[in-house]
Each structure stands twice: as C-alpha cells, then as structure tokens.
Amino acid sequence: MSTAISPLAPKKYPKMPAIEGVRIATAEAGIKYKGRTDLLAMVFDAGTAVAGVFTRSKCPSAPVDFCRDNLAGGKARILVVNSGNANAFTGKKGRESTTLTGKAAATAAGCTPGEVFQASTGVIGEPLDSGRFSHLLAGLVKDGKPDLWTEAAKAIMTTDTYPKVATATVKLGDTDVTINGIAKGAGMIAPDMATMLSFVATDAPIAAPVLQALLSKGVAPTFNAVTVDSDTSTSDTLLLFATGAAAKRGAPAITDIRDARLGQFKRALNKILKNLALQVVRDGEGARKQVEVTVTGAKSARSAKRIALSIANSPLVKTAVAGEDANWGRVVMAVGKAGEPADRDLLSIWFGDNRLAHNGERDPDYSEEATSAYMKRDEVRIRADIGIGRGKATVWTCDLTKEYVAINGDYRS
Amino acid sequence: MSTAISPLAPKKYPKMPAIEGVRIATAEAGIKYKGRTDLLAMVFDAGTAVAGVFTRSKCPSAPVDFCRDNLAGGKARILVVNSGNANAFTGKKGRESTTLTGKAAATAAGCTPGEVFQASTGVIGEPLDSGRFSHLLAGLVKDGKPDLWTEAAKAIMTTDTYPKVATATVKLGDTDVTINGIAKGAGMIAPDMATMLSFVATDAPIAAPVLQALLSKGVAPTFNAVTVDSDTSTSDTLLLFATGAAAKRGAPAITDIRDARLGQFKRALNKILKNLALQVVRDGEGARKQVEVTVTGAKSARSAKRIALSIANSPLVKTAVAGEDANWGRVVMAVGKAGEPADRDLLSIWFGDNRLAHNGERDPDYSEEATSAYMKRDEVRIRADIGIGRGKATVWTCDLTKEYVAINGDYRS
C-alpha cells in the first residue's frame, strides 16, 4: 500500500485557532496502529448544541446508531473517536461496546450518556473492545487543550495521506465567531472500507434545531456531492457542535433558521464543509486528479445530480481521466445510463472550456491539441449540458488509477 | 493494451453446425482494423421472424434506433454488423449512415429496408461512412455459406480476446431444431466503450411475437444479470432470428407462447443466452476471476437483484476478489448501500461454502485457511442472505484488476 502523500494535498495548512468551549486531547491507545495516536476526545462546555448527518447505509455501524439516538437530545458534552476499528457489523457486541464507551465517557466528562457522541473507523467485523481505551478517557478530559485541532485530525486518520482541517472566522451580529472543522476520508484501513468522518465546531450560540437545519442543507452540495468510488461506508458521520461561548462576547443567540444575522455564518459553514469534502476527494485512494463534474440543462436539479453522479462514478470516465484522455464518448455513455430524461441529439460536452461535442455529435471546431493539454492538469472539469431544462448540479470525484486497485486489492493483513 | 487471451477463455470451442435458412459471409472492409475481418453479413431466407432487446441507454446509437424501428415488422432478411466504429453519438450523420446501409443491404438481399437489421461496435463519436463497406454487401450475400458461425463471431470482435459461440440441438415436437448464437463483449475499442452484441438464430418455426416473448423473458436472468463495470453501452443489441426451415422436416409452427411443445426449446435458448452472457463476463477487461453473486432472503426478487448488482458493481468488492481477499465487510457495505430493505443483524455472508458472517456478525466458526484457499479459485461465489424474505437473484461479474485500469486508461490512439 502506498504511503506517499497525495499529490493533491494542500500546499499549506491553516493554523487552527481555539474554539472557546472546546478542549481536545489525543492518545495512543494501540487499538490497531502502533506509534501513532488513534484516540480523540473532544470535550465541550455545558450548553453545547449538536447536529448530525449520517450514512444512508441500511447496515450502519454501532456508533452511528448510538449517535442517532442521542441526537434527539440536541446536547453534547464529549465526542470520542477511535481509529483502527470501525465497530461495524459487530452485532450485539457492537452495541455493548458503544454502551460501555458511552458510560465511561459520561463519567469522565461529568455528563449523562445521552450527551456523549462517538465514532469509529477502521477494520469492520472485528469486535471493538471498549476496555482498550475507556480507561484513558478521564485523563484525556483532564488534559484537554483548546488548540489541538490538527492533532485531532491526525488521530482519526486511517489511510488518509494527510490530516484535513479548515477554519473560518466571521461576524455573527457584530461579534467574531469561529468555525473549525476536521475530516478523515476515503482512505482504506489495510484494506477495509473507506469511511468519511467529519467534526465541525463553533463558538457561535446557535440552537440545536437551527444547527441541524444548517447542516442538513449544507451537506447536499458538499459532502453529499463527492464520491470516490460510489461505495458508501457503514460509518459516515458528520457532527456539528456549537458551544455558544461567543454569547459572552456579545454574539446574538440564534433560535430561528430565518434569522437574517445568520447569513455570513451560513456561507462560512458551507465553505468549510465544501473545503473538507474536497480534501477527502483529493485524498481519494490512488487519486492523481480532482474531477469536477457539472451537469446543466437537465430536467431538474435532482435529475442533474443523478446524471452528474453517473458520470463521476463511471469507471470508464474515471480511467479516461487517469489516462489524460478527453474521452467524451464515455461521458455520453454515462449520461445515457443514468436513466434520467435526456435527448442524445441535444447533448453538449466540455472538458474545461473545450467543447468536444455539440447537438449530439462531435464539435467540428474542437481542438485536439488544446484539449490534450488541458487533460494534463491535476484539476479537470467536465461539463455536460443536457439541453432540455434548467436543472443544474456539480459533484466532485477523483480519477481511477492502478494505485486504487493496488491499495484495495492487497491481501488483508 | 493487453492482447493475451483471457485466462477464463473456454478450454475448447464447440463445432458450430449450420442453421438451415441462414448464410454467413465476412469481409475485411478496413473500417478501422487492419489484417482482420470487420464486416459480417448474415442472410436469412424469406419468412424469417425476428425479435430483439436493446440497451436501456437514453443515448442509444443510430443502429439501435434503426433496429427498434424495424422490429415492429417482425421480419428479417439480412443482418449487417461492422466492428471498428459504433456509429454512436454521430447525430444526423449517424441516421444518414444507417439509412444508406439499410438501402444497400436491402438491394443486396432483395428485400425492403424494413427487413434489414444492423449493428455497429467500436469508436464512438466518429461518423461511420457507409460507403466504406456498402459496396461489399452484394458480394457477401452472393458468397454466403451456412457454416461460418465462428468466422462471424470473429468479425464482430473489438478487444474481445476470444470469439464467443454457443450451440444446441433440441426437439421441437418430434423434429430436431438447432439454435446457434454468437456474442461480442466487454472489450474496449482502443479504448472506447464496451458494447455487448449478440446474434442468435434457429431453424425452428416460431412466430415473431412468441420469439419476442421468449427473448424478453430469457434475457433477464442472463444478459441482464451480467455486469463488468456497471457502465451501460449506447449500443447493446441482442437479436434472435427464426428461419422456420425446420418446418419442412416436420417441426410444428409455434404461434402461442403457452404452447407446451416449446419447453425444450425454451430451456435450450435460455442456456445459450446464459452461456454467451457468461463468456462476455469471462472476457471482461482485465478479468482474472469470474464472480457469481447470489442474494437470498430479500424482500422480493427485484430487491434481491438490486442488492446483487450493488455487490457485483462495487469496486471495493471487485478489487478484494482480485486480491483473493474474502473481505466480507465490503459485502456488508454493498448490501447497505443498495438502499433496499435489509436488517444488519439478520445478514449472513458466504464465500463459496464458507460462512464468514452470520446474524450480523463474524461467524465464530469460520476457517480463515479454508476461505483463503477458496479465494484462489478462478470462479468465486459470493452469497448474501438478507434474512427478511424469500426474494432471490443471481448475477455474474468479474474482478477489477490493474489491467482494467491499464486497458481503459491508455491514451486514445
């Protein structure tokens, strides 16, 4: 398996500020990995609101079930995340493990188990022994520090080749509030399944129902618009925490999603979600190129997204991009197989600004030379105009390389 | 691109008998390939009935449109197939080309253009100049011979590594009737899209509506149950011709799908369709292993098939098979992402006869050693029992290897 850092990794990482009301600690619990951190505790001050979205898998992991149950309460005091074992498809033992972790974390943080959130990523089908790390939680709560966001991002990595962090500071009313986020992505755990985890926190005083509405809306054009290989994890988890600590500095309490003062915050949050989602794509297994697929002129936005995902998930399109081949015929194929309304003879296709096909046939004016040069870039944009409506959507993926097959075809160790 | 014959190719090929009422000729038209045949004409005696099924792509090729139009007539006198150019996404020029080919073939065969069928496979988006081969059709009709079925299978190959043929002789009433079939599969045309073409003919006297009913039913568990990479071609075409010549030898004319005398014929036809479909899978790009995926205990047969295709199309499952890794966690993932009714805690998974997971967790009795040995076979069976109903389905695919990426990621020449 490759351990080289993705060529699409950020050129520089932001310095992550503290979020008032959040303390972070990590540890080497030795769950599977040696010589690196694999346990994260994020401790929140009393009054922290929480929102979450999860995998749509019909076979979710035990921690996903645990978080879904607790989300109704809307309150969080501690988040516990381990890497190395996903606690997925572990039956009753899985539930026992999340129950034990929940109790240990509640004791450590001085809260109820209903205010605990947890996530696990790594090998699936192996029972996760909570006893391997639950005794460490009290120490982590005691040692937590506000400025360890990058360390947090490192502790939750599996085969990610770089830690994923993003931050923004914006006005809420007249007061500065900060949003920090971390993510782990489509790396495989030697070589079990990819899992997307992301945790975002802010000091803004935003009520849980508003937070949930922001997150549910924000996830559609960001985390739900990226795909590495069309395979949905059992464990995908995105949680958003709001400590409300900025209220002391004068930030207004937001209790209504229609509150006009939310504008800047909402845009910044969506930007962070998109930033993290794209970092996940750019660290996709074996990825050498980022691919942006935009579909315009579809019957509806929903139809556009389906067609865009059909293009982005097509192995033939993805291998063509890997081969730097502007193979628009495969884009036609992927539009055709999406099953959405389309008229072959109205279809146009671009790679970057190069229109290769128009009105259902090859564009007579297209330059093979310019297009070939374009395909050598490490960010490739594909656009398909369906020509029958106003529906529009953009999704992101990466190319499909031999390295992907190597990473995922190795024997499980 | 690899030119080695697939390791899953048949150990021996059947000798293909003649079908009374069918004459075959091939030619080197030089449409794209050099030094090989790329044009096939199959000429049928008057009175030949025809049935067909086609790609579900919303962007079908011009020949698919042409065949669909003619199918309503139910009569066929000539089939013309070229390889090297798919005449797909060629706009008006595509229709002009099929019209010209239709006229030339009708003149050559002494029939109406409505009795002509045609198919094209190869590069897409390039106009197909009918003039490159239409002048050859009269000669092909004149030179046609009954015993050139294997030559026919060779002429329609693109990057297939072996010709695909199958034959059976069965009783219709008290008379022997023969069914011959050829197919070309999921090879890429250097490196444009894969296309599945198959042509089956019989001397049995079966009326077109009965033929269509047999074919539409037969295709579901055969050609519509195989997948190489989830990418649907613009050009998939399966045609079934019945010359009726066996009537002279006493075979009964069949005009009703419920005719009890059809039993043997129906079984033989379905077997040929399955045989050809599996040959396509076994010649899938880069394929090293055939994978049979069976889902049992689903809510319905339809639901079972969706789950089975979710497993068979999962890049993570397919790379695991390539790596000879019995990674049942990825099967759980693929069941979960199918979006069909499933209960994680009732799920069981087998590789061959090795049960790896049961009641939602790892089977404590499973033997790593026996399973590892099993995964080294070149035919691997995966079974998932969903545990909630009686729905059942089987589909076939191949593994996903680095060779697939190499074949499809090379520059288009």
List keywords for this structure.
homodimer, 413 residues, alpha+beta, L-amino peptidase D-ALA esterase/amidase, Ubiquitin-like (UB roll), globular
List the helices and strands and how they pair.
The structure is a homodimer of 413-residue chains.
Chain A: E1 22-27, E2 39-44, E3 49-54, H1 62-71, E4 78-85, H2 91-109, E5 116-123, H3 137-143, H4 149-155, E6 164-172, E7 175-184, E8 197-202, H5 208-219, E9 237-242, H6 263-282, E10 290-298, H7 301-312, H8 315-322, H9 328-337, E11 348-351, E12 354-358, E13 361-362, H10 368-375, E14 379-385, E15 391-398, H11 402-409
Parallel strand pairs in A: 4-5, 8-9, 10-14
Antiparallel strand pairs in A: 1-2, 2-4, 3-9, 6-7, 7-8, 10-15, 11-12, 11-14, 12-13
Helix pairs in contact in A: 2-3, 5-6, 7-9
